[in-house]
Design brief:
Strand content: under 5%
Oligomer: single chain
Structural class: mainly alpha
Helix content: 55-70%
CATH class of the domain at 70-457: Mainly Alpha
Number of helices: 20
Largest sheet: 2 strands, antiparallel
Shape: globular
Length: 559
């Protein structure tokens, strides 16, 4: 199906297909034909470059398929064989998703420096602290508690529960929030292709979803980790290329500062630019200039709220799983350095690209809404580069979406097959049955993700921020206290997940709209409430069993 659509778009965009015998079709098995590609359309060249990239990613899935099908441990955690570079790069690539190349530049383009800067700073600090504090102990602890290979399984085994309540609750929350995450990634793919080729958003979104599903089904965790490593390299190359050439194209940093300096609050760390928009959310333009209102104050509470994005890392399954999958704990230090450097450079480049874009494309009609502004990286790439190079650069957007959605799909499917199906419903299930259920679940979650992504006006940054808060509050406090507090109880763990996950919905949907001191990112209050619930319930319930305490002490002796 994908090949058909790919060739169809190629022919419509200026490619011509010729066969040796002059016939449109040949009999089955006769491969005596050649493709003569007429590169008459810049969009065709872009699609050609991106098509080659997608083909390369599919090859990785096929190559890894044999290894992945050996066992569920190989399929879900790669046999704990990741090296430091693959662990670090795949963790960051799967973590950042399409919002790094579309959400962050779009946010900076739309409202200036402050929001994007404090978010990026919080994420950079969270990345470093997570690798420094959590990674080594989680890697060891997962081995002690019966070689846990999923996050729900780790939590469940940590308390040696017989009735799998923790396993069930954590698996349900993973399904909920990863379905939202998968939807945001599919939105990225749909926006990318529809913006590039002027084709239907829904068709393009479905095609990009199919590519992710195919190679995740084939290769499992190892395939997605290796492909995420490749995609991490593509992402940082693309960001740096656009940044460097963009600065030259704009006449240097000084010229950019001059062009955006008059926008109230645009380059202020403690103020936020406020685009003047009409009733439909389109920014107003007068005399060739976009209109802005007075800057919105960006106070200390807002800064703390925005930086709380960094708390999310302690509960991100796609990152935590890399800690468990690395081959040696001694290699985690190198991974920490690689991950932190990649994160800082990528976030800084994405932010500055957004600021530069406002200088160059101030009145571009396709960028005059908050949702449309997230296409600024695409616009910039087409402006700067030859179509073939632009296609390679814009493959980074696809890379970001694919590297995240494959992780989300795999972890969510493992929550059903490994944790609910084998852990609760059929404890004697074979490895083959577990993986078959996983693949069926993966397809179902993909369909749910497509439904969530159906609205092409979705703002990627907002969709991701909700799912990020969900994971951070549901699992973050629990992970930290499981690893470092001996007194935590099973009842406390259940209370923490329920309170944290529930608080995200309540704060987002009911409380935040009250404004004032309540207008803070839902992750911060939900994280604190979750931690408080765990501590209080643990202290008023019975002390953990001795075998659970022995496991806690045994972690320090494991290498």
């Amino acid at each position: 199906m994908f090949l058909y659509l790919f060739l169809k778009i190629l022919t419509e965009r200026g490619f011509a297909v010729y066969f040796f015998n002059g016939k449109r079709y040949t009999k089955m098995g006769d491969w005596s034909f050649e493709f003569a590609l007429k590169m008459n359309d810049p969009q065709a060249k872009i699609l050609f470059a991106m098509g080659l990239y997608m083909l390369a990613i599919l090859v990785i899935g096929i190559v890894c398929a044999k290894r992945a099908n050996k066992s569920s441990e190989d399929y879900f955690i790669g046999g704990r064989s990741l090296g430091p570079w693959v662990a670090a790069m795949s963790a960051e690539a799967s973590d950042m998703s399409g919002w790094l190349l579309m959400g962050v530049p779009g946010l900076a383009y739309w409202c200036g420096l402050a929001d994007a800067f404090w978010t990026a700073l919080g994420l950079a600090l969270g990345t470093y602290i997570n690798w420094l504090v959590v990674s080594k102990r989680l890697r060891r602890y997962s081995l002690v508690v019966d070689n846990a290979i999923t996050i729900p399984e780790f939590f469940s085994n940590r308390f040696r529960e017989n009735k799998k309540i923790i396993l069930t609750i954590s698996s349900v929350f993973i399904l909920i929030f990863f379905s939202v995450y998968v939807g945001s990634c599919f939105v990225t793919g749909g926006k990318l292709f529809s913006q590039l080729f002027g084709t239907d958003y829904h068709v393009m979104m479905i095609i990009s979803a199919l590519i992710v599903v195919i190679y995740t089904l084939l290769g499992g965790f190892l395939a997605e980790s290796i492909s995420d490593f490749v995609q991490g390299l593509v992402m940082i190359f693309a960001l740096l290329a656009v940044l460097v050439f963009g600065i030259f194209s704009a006449g240097g940093i000084g010229e950019v500062a001059k062009n955006v300096g008059d926008i109230p609050g645009f380059v202020d760390f403690f103020g936020l630019a406020a685009p003047s928009v009409d009733a439909s959310g389109v920014q107003l333009v007068a005399e060739g200039k976009p209109l802005f209102g007075d800057a919105t104050p960006y106070g200390l509470l807002t800064i703390i709220s925005t930086m709380s994005w960094g708390l999310g890392y302690f509960g991100m399954p796609q990152v935590l799983l890399r800690f468990m999958a690395i081959r040696k704990t001694s290699e985690l230090r190198r991974s920490r350095i690689i991950a932190t450097v990649w994160c800082v450079i990528s976030l800084a480049a994405a932010l500055v690209i957004g600021l530069i874009s406002r200088s160059l494309f101030a009145t571009n009609t396709e960028l005059l809404t908050a949702s449309g502004a997230e296409n600024v990286f695409i616009t910039f790439s087409q402006f700067l580069f030859h179509p073939i190079v632009a296609g390679i650069v814009m493959s980074a957007i696809l890379a970001a979406a694919m590297s995240s959605s494959d992780s989300y799909l795999l972890i969510a499917s493992s929550a059903v097959s490994k944790n609910i199906y084998q852990g609760l419903l059929k404890k004697n299930a074979s490895e083959k049955q577990v993986m078959n259920v996983s693949r069926i679940t993966l397809l179902v979650i993909s369909i749910i993700g497509i439904v969530i992504a159906w609205n092409e006006n979705s703002v990627i940054f907002k969709v991701v921020s909700f799912a990020w808060a969900g994971f951070g509050a549901t699992f973050g406090p629990l992970m930290l206290l499981c690893l470092f507090w001996k007194r935590i109880t099973r009842a406390g763990a259940v209370a923490g997940m329920v309170v944290g996950g529930g608080a995200v919905f309540v704060w987002k949907l009911l409380i935040r709209d009250l404004g004032g001191y309540f207008d803070i990112y839902e992750l911060l209050p939900a994280f604190l409430l979750s931690a408080l619930a765990i501590v209080i319930v643990s202290l008023v319930t019975k002390k953990p069993k001795q075998e659970v305490l022995d496991d806690f002490d045994a972690v320090k002796t494991v290498e």
